[in-house]
Write a sequence for this structure.
């Protein structure tokens, strides 16, 4: 099939200006912090959180949205009259709305009816629109239909996340982690831990580790109600689930193309009560709230630290603080909601408390 992009000419002035706007937004931005946790229980193991909540749009999806826009612009998929469409009700839509507004483009997030109004408000805050569908499995087909009808561009984060990020280069998250670790007592992490949503960050970090021949292993942590772990074990791409993950941003009901099993050294499923318990405990350590996927990551990192300590190993472990907790005051930080939707988190909190002592 031939596809024509009638509005696209190479080095079109608008496209150059759009790229310059995104690059200057990047130039004005500071790198995100790498926080070292003060956990006296682990004598010879240091644990770090790469704090992605400090991006202008509040999550690690700021990096992804920037990359997807640059990828679309340089591919000739986005021009001055292109409507941007994405199937996301979460952080990706919020960050993409921000960049669409920066470029003066219309942005439509295709979201299930059940999406929390707080999130729709955030998408609208950046000038984005919400287009509702009844069920969550309808968002992909409806996004494609809308893109065709409006002569727009469907960003499709779950397909393009892994390839839109330049995994070899200077300004990706993996390079930043290794640079920031340089003066630590264990500068080369023994492990990096990350949970897949698109799988884009795992791909970037895993490829970078291999490319630079680092002696670092990559652990993926999956929440309950996700097919990624089972797919990692079996290679079965046809796996699906009826219900979605309760840990926002991670876990998928179908195998997504951006999830690349070959970059991962080890994978584990973390119980939702452990993920949510961990962010409540983390608040007692750093005095700040984080989203639940940070709990999944950190619980996995702490498990590794326990194993390393038991084996007499020394070293460092790095994981990600993916977004802040302000978005989740009604859910993960509402104890009634937690009791009804996640279960008992007190055992996890009690278990983790000994790490500070
Ligand atoms: C997207 C997301 C992740 C997972 O990152 P990917 O690179 O998409 O795998 C984790 N946590 C949150 C809050 C996210 O929005």
């Amino acid at each position: 099939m031939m596809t024509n992009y009638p509005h696209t000419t190479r080095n079109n002035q608008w496209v150059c200006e759009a790229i310059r706007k995104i690059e200057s937004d990047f130039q004005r931005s500071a790198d995100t912090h790498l926080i070292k946790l003060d956990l006296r229980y682990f004598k010879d193991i240091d644990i770090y959180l790469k704090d992605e909540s400090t991006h202008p749009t509040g999550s690690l999806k700021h990096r992804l949205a920037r990359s997807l826009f640059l990828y679309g612009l340089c591919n000739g998929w986005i021009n001055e009259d292109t409507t941007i469409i994405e199937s996301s009700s979460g952080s990706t839509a919020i960050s993409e709305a921000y960049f669409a507004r920066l470029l003066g483009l219309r942005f439509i997030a295709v979201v299930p009816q059940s999406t929390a109004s707080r999130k729709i408000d955030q998408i609208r805050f950046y000038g984005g629109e919400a287009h509702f569908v009844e069920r969550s499995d309808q968002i992909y087909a409806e996004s494609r239909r809308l893109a065709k009808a409006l002569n727009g561009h469907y960003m499709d984060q779950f397909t393009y996340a892994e390839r839109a990020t330049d995994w070899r280069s200077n300004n990706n998250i993996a390079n930043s982690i290794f640079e920031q670790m340089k003066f630590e007592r264990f500068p080369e992490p023994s492990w990096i831990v990350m949970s897949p949503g698109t799988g884009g960050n795992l791909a970037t970090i895993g490829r970078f580790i291999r490319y630079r021949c680092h002696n670092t292993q990559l652990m993926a942590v999956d929440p309950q109600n996700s097919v990624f772990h089972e797919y990692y074990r079996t290679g079965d791409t046809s796996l699906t689930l009826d219900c979605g993950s309760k840990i926002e941003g991670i876990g998928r009901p179908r195998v997504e193309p951006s999830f690349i099993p070959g970059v991962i050294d080890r994978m584990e499923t973390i119980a939702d009560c452990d993920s949510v318990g961990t962010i409540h405990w983390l608040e007692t350590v750093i005095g700040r709230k984080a989203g639940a996927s940070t709990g999944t990551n950190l619980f996995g990192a702490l498990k590794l630290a326990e194993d390393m300590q038991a084996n007499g190993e020394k070293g460092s472990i790095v994981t990600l603080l993916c977004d802040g907790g302000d978005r989740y005051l009604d859910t993960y930080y509402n104890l009634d909601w937690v009791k009804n939707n996640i279960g008992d988190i007190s055992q996890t909190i009690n278990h983790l408390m000994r790490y500070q002592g």
User: Anything to note?
Assistant: Residues 28-60+188-356 form a domain with the Rossmann fold fold (CATH 3.40.50.1100). Residues 292-310 form the longest helix (19 residues). The mean pLDDT is 94.
